[in-house]
Every structure is written in structure tokens, then in C-alpha cells.
Amino acid sequence: MARKKPTVSLQAAITGHLRHVQAAHSPNTYNDYANTHRKFLEFIGEERPIRSITTADVEEFMILMREGDLPANPLTHQARPGDKRRPKTLANIHTGLSALWAWALERELVDANIVRQVARPKVNLEPIRPLTPEQVAALFKACRESRPWHNKPMVANARVTFERDRAILAVLLETGVRVSELCSLRYRDVTFHRVGGMLHVDLGKGNKSRDVPFQRICATYLSDWLLLRPDIEPADYLFTSSHQSRLPMTRGSVQQLVKKLGKKVGVDASPHDLRTTAACLMVKNGISAWELQRIMGHADVKTTMRYVRAAQMDLEDVMRRVSPLENLRLR
Question: Are residues 257 and 145 in the same domain?
Fold first, then answer.
């Protein structure tokens, strides 16, 4: 007698899948999948059996995600009419649904992974454009200085978060960690030694840990920040909302911080721009692709090679300007 296939609701399947993801994957993966599943649940309905959902349902949902406006900004609560989801975001939504169906198929809750029958949105990789040395210097300067009025020059002031902000920029640029990894760092993850130190990135992207070294200047900026927190405990977060708080910085707050610092000095910057800049500068300074892959925490060396190629293209542009023979006008 054939075993009767189980019938469960979409809500129950999502609950089970997220329990699996929470046990096997990083918190960021869990949050991304949970966000995707919540949107899909609102579209389909909680009580509908997952086995009854069709390819057409998934296609309609993906169209809605592509054509619909972005929800209000969670930080400012301002609506974003006309702003659409980026191709990378749509591809991640597709990946999240496919992971749900793959999990359900293993448990015979569905008959096939119908999401794989829906074309995954193509992601056109944007060109890598690292910040210039002048832009990086301007961002560090903005940690201590600001403009009292938009038409006035920058002046030094006693910003209460100066040491923290400078240390955040230093860690992002020196180690190339992702913003989510930076926010997860705890005091116990930092080791200092005579000429620098080491960051232990615990369970970064892909649920993998790695150790990333840093040198003297970064160590100095980190030490200046930690001097303001004499009572810090090993389990405390490395970067908090203030030196008197134990609440960690969030991805959104770090993104807003870098954006705000950049706005002061006319630099359009994000934490990912600093990660990109770090990778390109390391390549220019002689790091190998294998070494860069380990530091950046890339699962696929193809991702690493994008930074290598971007840095090499920049060097080619420099060589066109500084070529000894060309500038001697030899014929």
C-alpha cells in the first residue's frame, strides 16, 4: 500500500524550513529567507497547502516583486514611490523560494521544485569602482570635522562618536569585512600584538569563520575607541551605538553612518564601497588572488577575480599616464 503523501500548509512549511535554516546557516541567511517567505506568505495566504501552489503562482509573485514599489524605508519610514527592487534582490528572493521548495521536496511535502521552472532574474554585475585615496582621506577627516552650515568650510569639533566612527572606517578599509560581519564582532574576537592584531570573524557569509590580520594604524584607532570603554567584557559587541551603550551597531546604522560622513565631504560611499576599496588596494599592493580570497571570505574565487581584474584595469590606466617610454616621446 502506497504511503499517503503529507499535506501541510504553506505557513507550516515555512516554519519548518526556517527552523532548519536557523540551525544550519548564518543569521543573515536566516533573515533574508525569513523576509522572502513573509512576502510570499502574504501573497499566497497562510492556509493554502504548499503542494497546491503552482509555477504560475511563483511567476505572478516574482512579477509583483519586480514591478511593485519598494516599501517605506525602515529607518526614516518614508515612502519610496518609483523605486524598484534591484536585480540582485530579485535573484535573492528567487533563491530563497527555491531553497524552501528544495527542503520541502526532500520531505515529500511537494512533488517537484517548481521554483526552478521559473527563470531566475539575471544579475548584471555592476562595475567595481573603488574610492580614490583622496576620498578615503576625506571620509576619515569627516569623523572629526563637519560644516556648521552647508556653505561654510569644514571645522574641527568634539564629535562624541569620533573615535568609534574612525575605528569603524579603519576596520572596514583595513580588513575588508562585510558590514554584517563588522556588526557581529565582539571584544573577544579582537587580538592585539606588537605591530597590529587579528580579527576573528565568527561564522561570516556561508556560515564560515576566518581570521583577518590588521596592522598598526588600525590597531591604534581601535585602541582609542576601546579606551572609552574600560568596563568592556569579552562578550560585549565591539561597536556599539555609543561608548556608554552595549547595544550593537546594526547594518542599517553603519550604512547610514558611512553615507552621512560621505555627504559631509561630497563622497558617495557605503560600507561595501570600503570593502571594495580594501580589496583593490590589496591587489595593487601585491596580494595574490588566493590570499585575497581568504581575507575577504569569498566562497568562489570568481568573485575574488572581479576585484583582481578591477585593480589591474586601474593599473593599466595609470601606466598609460606614467609610461617612461611614452613620456620620453621616443620614436
Answer: yes
